[in-house]
Amino acid sequence: MTTIDNASRPTTVSFTWPRVTFIRFSMLAMMVLIVSSWIFVLNVDGAQSHSFLSVETFNRFKDFLGDLLGIGSSTTSAFAQWSEWRSTGHLAYQTLAMSVMAIGFAAIFALVFFIFGARNMMMGEMAPYGSWFWRGVFFFVRGMFVVTRAIPELIWAMLIIFVLSPGLLPGAVALGLHNAGILGKLSSEIVEGLDQRPIQALRSTGAGRFQVMVYGVLPQALPRFVTYLFYRWEVIIRTAIVVGFVSAGGLGTEFRLSMSYFHFTTVALLLVWYLILVLAVDITASYLRRLAR
Known about the structure:
single chain, 293 residues, mainly alpha, MetI-like fold, 11 helices
């Protein structure tokens, strides 16, 4: 009787394709889009008179950086003038005030309407009545959230500037409207995702709708609402300079004028103040978020 050694048998290796998941497909699609975009920029884009990676592009960048820093200029740089620092600092203060007014408008709007945009409060188990009126209120409020957040801040500012005179108020209202829709939607989703056990316990004891709101909904929702509020403030301070391009006040208006008159050292000084503002608001908001938790 002969035996065959299993080790001497040829082994076959079968190849199996990796399972396609959403994450893998997304990563592959992202890499394809990035490579395609750079191919278009480097080879296809006809709007550029010279190549992106070229000596001419480097020389233009070097010359523009020199203009921003005032290197080789015959005039006094804005960095060397205390009056420029003082005037641009006042504009930075106006931009900060615009962001505070904007987040205040957005917070008031969201606090007033976020309950009416929560599905469980208007159409679910917490709905006060089973009538079509409250369903209509829910869809109307959700529609307001969609409209206000769908229109960018710059478009809101361009529209509001025709109603209000140029200044900080149009910029604050534009930023507030856009972020009100975002905060309102986020706050409504907070209410929809709340733990229902404390609310049901209050209702089982005979608590009314107002008591359930005050003692069951708000204590759970407000900490997360405050956290989102400070996150949106960080976003607002970054976009406040953009609405200023349409004469809505602050650093943005002066930035547009300085670029138009080729006052590049003033542009660089405005960017320095802008970075100071962003860092200050980021640090302050992070500290306030920790307190809210």
